[in-house]
Specification:
14 helices; single chain; mainly alpha
Length: about 350
């Protein structure tokens, strides 16, 4: 049994614009979790540098502000849950180096995201992209976080964080020093798929803007994208067995259920047998009602970047107050002087 107090750490990269999948799969749950346990929410700007096409400082700064604005606009209270960007807390990088010396090449070689992102030109990928999961482990464990909200595509990285924590504890005869963080995967909106292809995850990097609903889209754009979303000629399914071979139908029903906070089966029962043209209109109205206030608040916050920087600095100070004693303790454990 662990004696670690429950604590949540999660974050998003400031690359491209956040979308509906980020909201339903993460932000919406983060807002709920801040009332259940201690939470810290990070804009992982150090991870953003692993994107090969992202060496544009002005864009990095703007994206950091936009992601922080999205956190707050979605309902995260910075007074309750510190919001900060990773690079403001040096303890992340310090612990990451120590963890680089704990982790093993064989562990990193198994990381599927590196294989996907590096493609056929593995030798040209940055070292940062390869060791990305080690920095992620440091992000989590520098706060001794016990719970991490993650999507399915991040579960492998969280498993690596657990392996690193366990090996550190064993290597340095420090039983239970670091907790073994648990994944938190919740709700029907955990994996939101593309509006153009129900077999592909909704993505910030998809070339088609119509494949996603951005959190910066206005009401008309949101409604238009939903009405243009790919479907099939059949009526809406009446039971889950009819989802088979109909990924777009399943995706739209899941989106409705997640936005409405209802079980998918209840949504299905209400709309069973209807044509998509009718359902899409209702879904569009719901999406606009839920997302437009977030968009409006994001725009208000983005108009005052100095205020966002103030909140990020305040959050970083709170985060550092937790992280710095842990890193100091780790240095003592590994034998560093001072």
């Amino acid at each position: 049994m662990t004696n670690h107090p429950q604590r949540v750490l999660s974050g998003m990269q400031p690359t491209n614009t956040l979308h509906l999948g980020n909201y339903l799969g993460a932000l919406k749950n983060w807002v709920r979790m801040q009332d259940e346990m201690d939470c810290l929410y990070c804009v992982v700007d150090m991870h953003a540098l692993t994107d090969a096409g992202y060496a544009k400082p002005d864009e990095v700064r703007r994206a950091i502000h936009e992601v922080a604005a999205a956190y707050i606009a979605a309902g995260i209270d910075p007074k309750k849950s510190p919001i900060f960007n990773q690079s403001r807390v040096p303890a992340h990088a310090e612990l990451a180096w120590i963890f680089n010396c704990v982790a093993r090449l064989g562990w990193l070689d198994r990381m599927t995201q590196f294989k996907e992102k590096s493609g056929k030109h593995k030798e040209r990928a940055s070292v940062g992209l390869y060791t990305y999961p080690v920095l992620m482990a440091a992000d989590i464990l520098v706060y001794k976080a016990t719970h991490v909200p993650v999507g399915e595509d991040q579960k492998q990285h969280l498993e690596l964080a657990r392996d690193i924590a366990q090996k550190f504890n064993n290597d340095y005869a420090a039983p239970d020093y670091f907790p073994l963080p648990e994944p938190v995967i919740t709700g029907p909106g955990t994996r939101v798929m593309s509006l153009r292809d129900g077999l592909k995850k909704m993505s910030k990097s998809d070339e088609s803007d119509n494949s996603r609903i951005n959190l910066t889209d206005d009401a008309d754009t949101i409604a238009q994208k939903i009405r243009k979303a790919k479907t099939d000629p059949l009526p809406l399914p009446t039971n889950e067995n009819e989802f088979k071979g109909r990924p777009e139908a399943e995706n739209l029903l899941n989106i409705y259920a997640a936005l409405a906070d209802e079980p998918v089966k209840d949504v299905m029962a209400r709309f069973a047998g209807q044509q998509f043209s009718v359902f899409k209109g209702t879904l569009a109205d719901l999406a606009v009602a839920k997302l437009s206030p977030i968009t409006t608040e994001m725009r208000r916050l983005m108009a005052d970047p100095a205020e966002i920087d103030r909140l990020l600095a305040e959050g970083a100070e709170k985060a550092a107050a937790i992280a710095e004693p842990i890193v100091k303790d780790v240095k003592r454990i590994v034998g560093f002087a001072g």
